[in-house]
Amino acid sequence: MVWCSGWRLASAVSNAGGLGLIGAGSMHPETLEEHVRKCKAATREPFGVNVPLLYPEIDKLMEIIVREGVKIVFTSAGNPATWTGHLKEHGITVVHVVSSVKFAAKAEKAGVDAIVAEGFEAGGHNGREETTTFVLLPLVREAISVPLIAAGGIASGRGMLAAEVLGADGVQVGSRFAASIESSAHDNFKNVIVKAGEGDTLLTMKQLTPVRLVRNKFFDQVIEAEQRGATADELKQLLGRGRAKKGMFEGHLDEGELEIGQVAAAIKDVRPAAEILAEIWNDYNALKQQLCK
Questions:
Q1: Residue 111's domain spans which residues?
Q2: Is 272 within the bounds of a domain?
Q3: 227-229-235-237 Cα dihedral, nearest 10 degrees
Q4: pLDDT tops 90 at residue 210
Q5: 45 φ/ψ angles, rounded to the nearest 5 degrees
């Protein structure tokens, strides 16, 4: 949710009854500090911060999180053993995102409080295993004892209920909220999301870090480079700097990196976050009651 989930979206989700998350992966330390403070002013409900552990200024981000009294941290893209103990020493609940059973077991061993199992349907950076959410969930459920949160391809109450049946205790929803009023994504990108159809996203850049992208001019350049056998260094040069910001935040749809999940094909409008959350929750309860009958 880089370039999509700032304090406005996080506070809106928390105020509506969910757990809003600030996506710190696209933020300089001073920017994260600003968003945390504004989020605290905008909601009295719990909210969290998602921190990619490979972030170059990770020490500064963690210092801000502790100093500002953030109570919940979701970590991803790195070794959870590095920071879990430090965060828990400061009374912070730690949740780690994984894409495989192996990494789920390592996260539990590192002492995390819960685990997000994310299938490769998800938008953005992804696991190399390409394990789908419905395959991954029961495998991880059998392997761990801590609470399990499902992610990847979930944007409805129906998806939430299915994840619960497969062993999840909750769900994490990204793509649906990227197309919300409070999302900080550019309107051009939101329009791409609601117009996306089945097959319009694909996992690519597997030589670097796999990432699911919407097909556009930049995407075609990446595919062409991979097909002709470009090296990792050549792909890095093609990627350059700021591609995700250019596409998702600034709205340059040809040259930017447009990260969104496969479930974009089911997203048909841009709505307030509270309405999205209420619809998911109400549909989940109605379907669960129907099945119980």
A1: 7-184+264-292
A2: yes
A3: -120
A4: no
A5: -90, 160
Q: Which H/E stretch holds residue 144?
A: none
CA distance 10 to 48: 8
Is-contact 273 177, C-beta < 8 A? yes
pLDDT, greater one: 16 or 207: 16
Q: What are phi and psi of 71, to 5 degrees?
A: -100, -15
Rounded Cα distance between 113 and 75, Å, is: 11
Please name which of 151, 140, 181, 177 lies closest in space to residue 272, comparing C-alpha atoms.
181
Q: Per the domain annotation, does 55 fall within a domain?
A: yes
CATH code where residue 17 lies: 3.20.20.70
CB 293 within 8 A of CB 29: no
pTM, entire model? 0.93
Q: Which two tokens stand for residue 115?
A: 């685990």
Identify the pLDDT of residue 228: 86
Per-residue confidence (pLDDT) for residue 107, from 0 to 100: 97
For the chain, how many structural domains are there in total?
1
Helices marked H in the chain: 7-15, 29-42, 58-67, 84-89, 101-109, 133-143, 157-165, 175-178, 187-195, 217-227, 232-239, 243-244, 273-292
Each residue's pLDDT tens digit, 235-249: 888 877 788 889 899
